[in-house]
Amino acid sequence: MSVSPLTGNLSLNPFTFAPLTLGCIKPLGWLQDQMQLMSNGLAGHEHDFYPIVSDSTWLGGQSEYSGLNEGIPYWLNGLVPLAYGLDDDRLKSQTGQVLDYILDHQQSDGWLGPEVPAHRDIWGRFPLCLGLMQLVEVEPSTATRVVPALHRFISLMHNMLAKNVGYEQFWGRIRYPDMIITLQWLYEKHPGNSSHMLLETMSLLNQRGLRWADYYTRGNFIFKDLDILRPPITDRSPVFPHVHAVNAAQ
Question: pTM surpassing 0.90?
Answer without folding.
Answer: yes
